[in-house]
Amino acid sequence: MAYDMNKHLNEINAPVIVFENVSKAYQKGTPAISNINLQIRKGEFVFIVGSSGSGKSTMIKLMLKEIEPTNGKVYVNYKDLSRLRRGQVAKYRRSLGVVFQNFRLLKDRNVYENVAFAQRVIETPNRIIRRQVPAILSVMGLSDKHKSLPSELSGGEQQRVALARALVNNPIILLADEPTGNLDPKNSWEIMRLLEEINKRGTTVVVVTHNSDIVDKMQKRVITMNKGILISDEQKGGYTRAH
Ligand SMILES: Nc1ncnc2c1ncn2[C@@H]1O[C@H](COP(=O)(O)OP(=O)(O)OP(=O)(O)O)[C@@H](O)[C@H]1O
């Protein structure tokens, strides 16, 4: 039966990400993902793991509506993404928090401005920006770096700025694609600690990662992809070494 968004709107643990029989083929031949069915509920912390080319980034791109499924439906935040009009896509994306492996900060703006930028684009009044940016920088342990340029920061600090920027508008969902891919173990754990903290405050967190050590130790829900197929979905799972 098709997913009924209206039924779930007022539920506390409503599914905020739903894949319904989703396949994506970039070209003819083997699809990048095949027939994925998946529900992630509000407040969950989920890892998506799998070897290179297994379809993880394809899933993130579908959630961001950067690509369209060949078959099936993706729902995020109670929206059927196939029904989102072209003019609504940018606004939709800004409603999600997103972080990537390579931080993607504005190189010529300082830490404060990088975070404030996320609020300026949605026309947040200045008095709110002046209150909320220092607050989120403080949560990320970056208060004394607010005037630094990204080039003056360590990799871990840059990723914390990216997290601050992703979170300053209080998204319901945070999508993180390899957030520790460029970090050493100490900084990787610091980012994970912050993601856990954010999740405890109510944000749904989805993390794509290759970091088996982190996945094994954190004991969260783990969705494992293999060659475009969802091969396991475990609560308190580990990193399957079979792939
Ligand atoms: N734009 C594209 N055009 C054609 N094929 C693509 C495109 N993007 C991805 N693919 C193919 O789709 C499959 C899944 O790729 P995807 O990037 O989702 O994997 P992944 O699990 O994220 O890999 P990695 O861990 O290396 O980032 C791969 O076979 C890849 O070659």
Automatic annotation (TrEMBL):
Belongs to the ABC transporter superfamily. GO terms for cellular component: plasma membrane. One of its GO terms (biological process) is cell division. Its main location: membrane. It comes from the Bacteria. Keywords: ATP-binding, Cell cycle, Cell division, Cell membrane, Membrane, Nucleotide-binding. The keyword Nucleotide-binding applies. Part of the ABC transporter FtsEX involved in cellular division. InterPro entries: AAA+_ATPase, ABC_transporter-like_ATP-bd, ABC_transporter-like_CS, ABC_transpr_LolD-like, Cell_div_FtsE, P-loop_NTPase. The keyword Metal-binding does not apply. It is found in: Cell membrane. Signal peptide: none annotated. Pfam families: ABC_tran (PF00005). This is Cell division ATP-binding protein FtsE. PANTHER family: CELL DIVISION ATP-BINDING PROTEIN FTSE (PTHR24220:SF470), IMPORT ATP-BINDING PROTEIN (PTHR24220). It is a peripheral membrane protein. Homodimer. Forms a membrane-associated complex with FtsX. GO terms for molecular function: ATP binding; ATP hydrolysis activity; transmembrane transporter activity.
